[in-house]
Amino acid sequence: MATTTLTDLELMQLATESGEAFAEGYYTALNGSRHQVASFYVPKSTGARPMPHISYNGNLYNDASAFQERFQEMPYTHFEAQSVNAHVLNRDMGLSPQSKQDAQQNVSLTVQVSGYVRLEERKEGPMRGFSDSFVLVPNKVEVGGQGTSKQGEGKKWVIQSQNFRFVV
Predict the structure, then answer these.
(1) Per-residue pLDDT tens for 66-82?
(2) Which of 111, 115, 37, 50 has its CA nearest to residue 78?
(3) Which of 63, 85, 117, 132 sits CB 3.0–4.6 Å from 112 for a disulfide?
């Protein structure tokens, strides 16, 4: 059976739709469901390149649970994403896809988000600019409600690498 590939238009649509859906879910979790933040990241792995790689305003984390714990300790935040830019980073992650759905799970994405974050109160307080860059990979975890089920439920993309910075 021949492998299936996606056209440039299909890859662009995949990146755009997936990047926007990811950003909406991620920043919604940061705003009000901090206990779910770790579920947006690849499972912890060690080795030559420990994953996930999280750089949050100069602080490095290689464990999504540790990042979630730290984020839960922070004062209230309210994120407003103003722009989302998504592209296919790698169109072939080494699989031999036999269907369009398989082909969509054979790519990685890069997503850049910029916007504003309020650090004190939901409706009052200064807004600071932020910039957030992600490398997203298909979610392969099928346990603990984090993976995607046959009905497509769950997170389709998870963070492999993140670089967040406040904009001065």
Answers:
(1) 999 998 888 788 899 99
(2) 115
(3) 85
